[in-house]
Amino acid sequence: MKIHLKIWRQKDSQSKGGFKEYTLDDVHQEMSFLEMLDTLNIKLVKKGEHPVEFDHDCREGICGQCGVMINGIAHGPLKNTTTCQLHMRSFKDGDTIYVEPFKAAAFPVVRDLKINRSSLDHIITSGGYVSVDTGQAPEANTIPITNEIAEAAFDSAACIGCGACVASCKNSSAALFTSAKITQLELLPQGKKETRKRVVAMVNQMEEEGFGHCTNTEACQVECPEDISVLNIARMNYEYNKSKILN
Amino acid sequence: MWYVKNALTRKNLMALTGLFLSFFLIIHLLGNLQLLLPVEEARLQYNWYSHLLAGNIVIKVISIVLYACILLHTIDAIYMSLKSKKANGPGYAKDNRGRASKWYARNMMFLGSIIFLFLVIHFKDFWYHYKFGEMPLDENGNKDLYTLVIAAFDQLWYVILYVLAIIALGYHLLHGVFSAHRTLGLYHPLYSKIVKFLGMAYAGIMTVGYIIIPVFIYLNR
C-alpha cells in the first residue's frame, strides 16, 4: 500500500523543527510501524540523506523506548499499545500519517523523533527504590504476601516508563508514571517502610523536572500501553498528604 | 508561599476551596428556592431571609471564607495554567489527544473564566446593590431584594445569560467535584466510583435547580 508520511525533523534541541513529507509505495500491511520507518530510512540512506532518528529497543512492547506521536496520539490509534506493536494494517492505502516526537518541556528533543527522557530517571533516582543491602536473592516465601496484593503491585509495576502519559496529558504531568512507581513499592512490605520519605522526594523531584500538575482528565490511562490505573495517582496524593500531615 | 511549593499542594488548595464553594452552592440554592413560593409569601420570606444572612456574625465569617475561597481558587487556577503552559513546551503541530478525555475536563479554566465573569455581574447586580445601594423596604422593614430579583429576571437576555453561565457551572462541577476527591487522595476503586456518580448527580441537581429559578420567574412573574 501507499503511505504518505509527514515526519517531524529537528536537527537538535536548539533548532526549530518542522514536518517533512515522504511517500512510501511498497508498505505491507503486516509491517510494524517501526519496520515501515526502517524502510523509509533505508531509502534515505541510499539517497545519502540523514535517516529519521527514533528510539527503539525490544520491539515487543515491553521496553518503553519507542514512543512517538502518531496522528496526534501517543503510540498511535490503537489504545493500550506501544508504537512497535502497532502494525500498518491499522492504516489504509493512501493515508497521510503525521509522526511527531513526544513533546514536553521536561522531554527535550535530541533529534527528529528521539527525545531525552532522563527526567523520568531522575524521579526514580530521587526515591524509587528500596534501601536494602543487596546479596543473594532471598527465599521468596519468607515474607508472606497475598496473591491480590502481589497482583496489584505488579499491575503498577507494569509501567514501562515510555512517557506516553506525559505526552497525552494536557498539562504534561508525570503523575501517572510517578504514582505507579510509588504504589508498586508501597504495596509490598519491603518498600512500605520508606513510603513517607519516598513519596515526598519523588513528588518534589517531579516538580523540579518541570512536569505539570494532574487535573484528573484520565487521558493518561487511555493512552498508556500498560493501562496503568489513574487510581495510582489518587493513591500518591493520599500518601503525600498523609506523610505531610503526619511528619 | 507554601502552596506554590509543588503541584500536589497547589492542587490540594484547588480541591479544598472548590469543595467549599460546592457546599456553598447547595445552601445558596436552598435559600433561593424561596423565590418560587407564592408571590406575597415569597417577597416577605425572601427579604426576611436576606436580612437574616446580612445581619448574622456567623454568616459574616463564613462569607469572608467564601470570598477568600473564590479568590484563592481563581488565583491558583491562573498560576497553574501558566505553569502548565510552561510544562507543555512547544506543543504539537498535529494534536488528537482529545479522544482520550472529556472536553469539559480539559477546559476547566475556560469554564471557570465564564463562571468568574458571571460572578462579577452577579455580585454587582445583587450583592453590591444589597450591601451598598439604596433600596426600598418592604412592609416588615427589610430591604426589598425580592422585587429587585424579579425585575432583573423579567428581561429575556438576562435570563439567557444566567442559563448559559449555569450550564458552564454545571460542566465545571461535573469534573471538579470528582476531581477534587481524587486530588485529596480517594483511591479506593468502589468509593471512587460512588463519588464519581454522586458528583455527577450533584452537578445535575445544581444545574437544574439554578436554571429553574430565573426561567420560572421569567415565565410566571
UniProtKB/TrEMBL annotation, chain A:
Its cofactor is [2Fe-2S] cluster; [3Fe-4S] cluster. SUPFAM superfamilies: 2Fe-2S ferredoxin-like (SSF54292), alpha-helical ferredoxin (SSF46548). Residues 150-179 form the 4Fe-4S ferredoxin-type domain. Pfam families: Fer2_3, Fer4_8. Belongs to the succinate dehydrogenase/fumarate reductase iron-sulfur protein family. PANTHER family: SUCCINATE DEHYDROGENASE (PTHR11921:SF41), SUCCINATE DEHYDROGENASE IRON-SULFUR PROTEIN (PTHR11921). This is Succinate dehydrogenase/fumarate reductase iron-sulfur subunit. It comes from Zobellia barbeyronii. The lineage of its organism: Bacteria, Pseudomonadati, Bacteroidota, Flavobacteriia, Flavobacteriales.
UniProtKB/TrEMBL annotation, chain B:
Keywords: Membrane, Transmembrane, Transmembrane helix. Gene3D superfamilies: Fumarate reductase/succinate dehydrogenase, transmembrane subunit. The chain crosses the membrane at residues 12-37, 57-82, 103-123, 156-174, 194-219. It comes from the Bacteria. InterPro entries: Cytochrome_b-558, SQR/QFR_C/D. Coiled coil: none annotated. This is Succinate dehydrogenase cytochrome b subunit. It comes from Zobellia barbeyronii.
